[in-house]
Design goal:
Blueprint: H1 3-16, H2 23-35, E1 37-38, E2 41-42, E3 63-66, E4 70-71, H3 72-79, H4 83-91, E5 105-106, H5 108-118, E6 121-124, H6 130-139
Parallel strand pairs: 3-6
Antiparallel strand pairs: 1-2, 4-5
Helix pairs in contact: 3-4
């Protein structure tokens, strides 16, 4: 008998005796159906299709609002970290200008690279009003 027919016969016999079928047994049947060739043709062409039901788990990045010409302090408040961490991220980013204090303005490319190093997704927004900036930096 053909190997697929033998496996199907085993499956019917197990179902008749009401034994619990294992996942490995079904995998064995499925792999034999995919690999069986009869007269140069696959017996079951539908079983060889790609299984789309399995999806990989993607990590979700936290979105952070960034804008052009942020200071180091504003970036720390946006990333919800300490200023010292921002200085550490700046060590690993190519910064064209010298960053001396918390009020130093950063270019958009540097801000984007710091967000990548911090593991967050930077979302570009319009620069908020000065009142909102003062409230956020005083709070953070």
């Amino acid at each position: 008998m053909h190997s697929t027919k033998l496996l199907m016969l085993k499956l019917v016999q197990r179902a008749a005796t009401k034994q619990r079928l294992s996942h490995a047994f079904f995998k064995q049947i499925e792999s034999s159906r995919r690999s069986c060739i009869c007269n140069g043709r696959h017996i079951s062409s539908t079983s060889a299709k790609f299984d789309v039901s399995r999806k990989t788990n993607r990590t979700k990045y936290r979105n952070v609002n960034i804008y052009k010409s942020m200071s180091v302090r504003e970036l720390a408040v946006a990333l919800e970290t300490d200023v010292d961490y921002i200085y550490e991220y700046l060590l690993y980013v190519d910064v064209p200008q010298k960053v001396e204090d918390e009020q130093s303005l950063l270019s958009f490319e540097v801000i984007r690279e710091v967000c990548i190093k911090a593991g967050v997704r930077g979302v570009l927004i319009a620069r908020p009003s000065i009142d909102k900036l003062v409230q956020e930096t005083c709070r953070g």
